[in-house]
Amino acid sequence: MKKIITLEVNGDLHEVAVAVHQTLLEVLRDKLGLTGTKRGCAVGTCGVCTVIIDGKAMLACLLLAVECQGRSITTIEGISSADELHPVQQAFVDQGAIQCGFCTPGIVMTSKALLDKTPRPDDEQIREALAGTFCRCTGHIKIMEAVKTASQYERAEKKSD
Amino acid sequence: MSTKRSTYSIVGKSRPKLDAPLKSTGRSLFTDDIVLPGMLHGKIVRSPIAHGRIVNIDTSRAERLQGVKAVITHRDTGGVMVGPDQMLLCDDTVNYIGDEVAAVAAVDEETAAEAAELIQVEYEPLPAILTLQEASAPDAPILHTYCEDNFADERTMVYGDPDKAFAESEYVRSDEFISNPTHNCFAELHVALADYSLPGKLSMWTPSQTAILFQKNLAQNLGLSESNVRMCCLNTGGAFSGRTDVKPHHYIAALLSRKAARPVKIMCSVDEEFIVCRAGGNNIYRFKTGFMKDGTLKVIEADMLHDCGAYVETQFIVLLLTGIMLQLLYKVEAMRYQGKLVYTNNIPYYFHHGGGMTPEQFALGQHLDLVARDLGIDPVDLQLKNAVEKGYTTLSGTHYASCGLKECIKKAARKAGWKKKYGKLPPYRGIGIGCGVMSSGGKGMFVHDTSAAFIKIAEDGKASLFTGLPDMGQGSHTTMAIIAAEALGITTEDITVVSGDTDIDPFDVGSFSQRGTFTTGNAVKAACLDAKKQLAKTAALKLGVKPSALVFKQRSVYPKGAPEQAMAFEDIVFDTLHSKEGRFVMGRGFYNSPSDKASLAYSFGTQIAEVEVDPETGFVKLLRMTVAHDVGRAINPLAVEGQLDGQAFSGAGQILFEECLMDSGQILNPSRLDYKLPRPFELFEIEHIIVETNDPFGPFGAKEVAEGPLVTTAQTIANAVSNAIGYPIKEIPVTPERILEALKQKQKQH
Predict the structure, then answer these.
(1) Burial group, residue B302, by CB count within 10 angstroms (0-12, 13-18, 19+)
(2) Which chain A residues contact residue B269 at CB under 8 A?
(3) Pairing state of beta strands B191-195 and B202-205?
(4) Do the Cβ atoms of A36 and B473 come within 8 Å?
(5) Is-catalytic flag, B707?
(6) CA-wise closest residue to B396 among B351, B466, B337
(7) Contacts of B186 in chain A (CB under 8 A)
(8) Most CB within 10 Å of its CB: which of B441, B543, B566, B662?
(9) Looking at residue B342, what is its pLDDT?
């Protein structure tokens, strides 16, 4: 049994027919072609598929698509422009915080959600926000640095506005 | 021994990876992102028992399910063997929990899963052999009945006269160590997408460390010509030595695709991920060493048992690596090694980060730490006394043209404040040192260890570099671009790396055995020098000097000492093409180490760890790591630091947390939450010390930094923990339970 729902993703409205048990992750990737959100464990243990819903970092694999109607969903595709990376993305690039890159979109989204709420996080706040993420390549060391750098980039950007 | 600041324009300067912006946006394609027209989804039916006879397989209900397009069992494989002892899809016997029995392809994942459930397999359980002890007992039941015993492979190495060296030793110590199974836990799960819809050509997308070996094995075992197998290894979501060989799901995806005449993707689920392989087996290491009282090492003897699980895969390599390794790090008179791979009904063992050398080096490192304590010698002094040096030739004939081991030891000890801390820390605080060595290449599997490269230079002065070397995140493609840019005198941004498709890429053995920077790097450099020679001919004519008198630098070409006469690089390219000859500039190069050893260049490292142990809970907190590594030359220091960080973290995981908990052949914790691995809360401080010894054979002096740091980390942390609790670490990982047990044993002794 499929249900027709409307999802707001990156500011666009999408009308999609989904089975009620389909996860947001499946719908984003398979129906909307938004493959920037990667499928990791698909059971909520790795944070790879993190998206931002109404300002909060959430795991797309643990949400049913039907639950997401009327909510504002931001995926990795929605944070950079054609010409410019988002400051968090730029910081991850500059600090060498990206290796295989599979977990990167999820960690970038998690970091963005943190910085949106807490523009100057301390180490403990960063660790806490990233506790559910999963990176086997970098040892999270340069990721921590990148989040701090992103915080600086964002503040510099605001100043220049 | 550090060389002076290099005069290179690009090599040695930190820069972000070329593919990092794309990866940051999620636009980099991984296998699961690829959807082919008409693509089906596959699901594998696996054995639920560790050992048993297959009485009957009934696929009829699955075949009748709406949406199912193909069902295969051993009757459909044409007798394909995945390895010397492993049949693709079991016919009469299953040998481990997870053994592949049948598979289905259907229009979507749910239908495939439902169909897999409908396949009824009737088993008659057989007794399972689950431990190394059971399997290696003289009267043990034999797992593969065509074998004489359960030893899948064995290897003995003897150098010098060990008996004489032991007799002459003033001090002899023996220890036994155990390591438990681990898992790679790549971010990207095992996945394969096969398109074998037409009989003439199989195309496969999958994460891999070596497209070439996948191509060769698939072709050979499926009865295809190599050129009829196209491997597409785009991005690989982590590998850690675990993606060097074709696994059953790759063949199964291909056969399902052939039968359904449509592309088939098989994506493992996260619990299935843990039964595709254990990566790092249950190993028992017995070490015996002979020393003089002043700490001079005379002889090393090692006896190792590796539980290889139900099938041997390519684990014979572990025996070679762990054996040779024993005499590479210290000056030693004699060495004896015996290693055995033992069949059990456990999940097959496959490489984890460090290819079997990480737990081995933990064991050797902890053993030597205990020797130092017995002899009353500071462990730093023991390392310095026995460390190999530049110009040394090992017992196996490996010669070190560059070696910064002593420099690493001294610098790490100074930076970590060893003298102020060793033996002077408060109770339950500990400090430990470890040293390591690693080859920059892996000659031995073939007669050659070849990498090839092409470069084509467009009229705008930009170049496309073609390489078969996969980049699993370590940044090898950026490293190759830097080498190319330096060799051609252009910038890294001018280079586009083309890779990941065997229909296009030149031959490259792959990204394993720490061979990328050294071996492929040399091939890339050779290709660029070939192209440069073609350009130099044009430039020499224009500038009226000999080709040898030209300087290529920062996109310009000029006679040595006369930069004011510079011509733009792209103008030289233009003039070469728009000439009577009409030459299109393209360079080709290959590299194969002229030595018969694993490599001509070896990296060396020293690490120091500081830990704090909570005697109440047994929990270890890793406070800080000082990581020194002789990389020859850091082509991209930012990437080198990334390698050091990642390996220190991985080593910490392998020593402190990671363990596949096994019961009766079943893994009890197949989840990324229950298989404990370090996350941001387990972060520690890290200090990098990059030592540069400018290896004469390395591209711009570079050597490996792929697994050398890792094999050093594990022992370092174990030694620090042992120092903190004042008791040997005999089994890893040193979980809180094992720490508490060690503290209990210690109390009993006093």
Answers:
(1) buried
(2) 42
(3) antiparallel
(4) no
(5) yes
(6) B337
(7) 100, 102, 136
(8) B441
(9) 97
pLDDT tens-digit series, residues A29-77: 999 999 999 999 999 999 999 999 999 999 999 999 999 999 999 999 9
Which residue type occupies B123? Y
- Considering only CB atoms, A141 lies closest to which of B35, B239, B686, namely B686
Average pLDDT value for residue range A80-105: 97
When CB atoms are compared, the residue of B16, B30, B238 closest to A94 is B16
Give the pLDDT of residue B3: 47
| Residue keyed to tokens 């572990």 | B318
Under 8 Å CB-to-CB from A83, ≥6 apart: which residues? Answer: none
Ramachandran quadrant class, A14 (left: phi over 0; alpha: psi -120 to 50; beta: rest): beta
Q: Which residue of A lies nearest to B673 if distances are taken between CA atoms?
A: A45
> Token pair of A17, please?
């027919």
pLDDT (0 to 100) of residue B5 = 55
Say how far apart CA B181 and CA B280 lie, in whole Å. Answer: 5
Pick from B21, B240, B683: CB nearest A136: B240
CB B625 within 8 A of CB B648: yes
| Cβ atoms within 10 Å, residue B151 | 15
Burial degree of B124 (CB within 10 A; 0-12, 13-18, 19+): exposed
Backbone dihedral angles phi then psi of residue B472, each to the nearest 5 degrees: -95, 10
**Residue ranges of domains in chain A, CATH in brackets:** 2-78 (3.10.20.30), 87-160 (1.10.150.120)
**Mean pLDDT over the full length of chain B:** 96
- Residues of chain B with C-beta less than 8 angstroms from the C-beta of A75: 26
Tell me whether residues B650 and A46 touch, CB distance under 8 A.
no
Nearest to B727 by CA among B322, B334, B388, B373: B373
**Cβ pair B473:A41 closer than 8 A:** no
Sequence ranges of chain B with CATH classification 3.30.365.10 = 20-28+445-591, 279-440+600-749
Ranges in chain B, pLDDT < 50:
1-4
CB contacts, 8 Å: A37 with chain B: 26
What pLDDT was estimated at residue B38?
A: 98
CATH class of the domain at B20-28+445-591: alpha beta
The residue written with tokens 């052939």 in the block is B258
Q: What residues of chain B lie within 8 A of the CB of A99, using their CB? A: 238, 473-475, 642, 646
- Asked if B475 has any chain A CB less than 8 Å from its own CB, the reply is yes
Task: Write the DSSP symbol of residue B392.
Answer: -
Q: What is the ipTM metric for this complex?
A: 0.98
**Which residues 216-275 of B are in CB contact (within 8 Å) with A?**
235-240, 267, 269-270
Using a CB-CB cut-off of 8 Å, the residues of chain A touching B638 are 96
Report the CATH fold assignment for B279-440+600-749. Aldehyde Oxidoreductase; domain 4 (3.30.365)
Whether the Cβ atoms of residue B604 and residue B630 lie closer than 8 Å to each other: yes
Asked if B638 and A96 come within 8 Å (Cβ–Cβ), the reply is yes
CATH 3.90.1170.50 range(s) for chain B read 34-127+187-238+243-276
3-state secondary structure of B448: coil
Tally: H helices and E strands in chain A: 5, 5
> Alpha-carbon distance A41 to B44, whole Å?
18
Cβ–Cβ below 8 Å for B188 and A40 = yes
Chain B touched by A139 (CB under 8 Å): yes
Catalytic annotation, pick one of B100, B486, B610, B707: B707
**B235, A100: Cβ pair inside 8 Å?**
yes
Contact between B497 and B527 under an 8 Å Cβ cutoff? The reply is no
Which CATH superfamily is B34-127+187-238+243-276 part of?
Aldehyde oxidase/xanthine dehydrogenase, a/b hammerhead (3.90.1170.50)
- Give the separation between CA B256 and CA B115, rounded to whole angstroms: 14
CA distances from B238 to B190, B466, B472, B509, B722 (A): 11, 22, 5, 18, 31
